[in-house]
Amino acid sequence: MKIKYSIFILIIFFTTTFSKCEKEVYDAVFKNKSFVECYINGEFVRSEGLSKAFEVPPTFHMNYSYSSKDDIFTFNISKYMDSKDGKRFDLKISFAQKKLPIIGEKYYFRKEVDNTKIYGFEDDFYVATVGVDPYLYQCADTSLIPKEIRKKRITLRTNTTTSGYIEFTKIDVKKNELAGLFEFEASGVSKDVPGATYKASVTNGKFEALLVEKDRTYYGKEFLFDTDIIY
User: What is the Cα–Cα distance from 124 to 87, expressed in whole angstroms?
Assistant: First the structure.
């Protein structure tokens, strides 16, 4: 009996130890310390980084580009942000200008953006949007919606920013490392569902991008998912 009990304890020990080792190996190989976090309508949300080889651009992505030759700097965030209660937000920030940003300076987001348009390079182009997938009854007057689809979800994205900025606190083009702060207030109106609207208040935004991918991306259709989709 004692022998069986001892063997059982050893199995548990090695299984637990192996699991911890697996996690450490996973974190070392697949994850890095990059992250984006903020509060959206008072809910804390955060998304952490993956190593470049395993990064999936639509679900977790930060990239930047800078060449002293053309002196154009771009930076993009495209991330799903999850809250503790399971809500998912799709945060996207696009930054493009001539010359490197000045550390500590606030760059204010553009007031309106067309989520269906593909933008080429524009100097002083700063955009921030949030995508959500609420139930129809949460974002529209249900009296205007057929009963059979009132509990369906709709994908919405903000397209009007009333205030907000991004500020870089670190830019190291040799190490490909960036960090910064952001916040903004924005709203969106559905093009397909009458009266469906959404407002987002993004506060205490912070990002750190370590060994970030160097890849120029401008704001446009390939940078976004489709909007106003009912499912």
Answer: 32
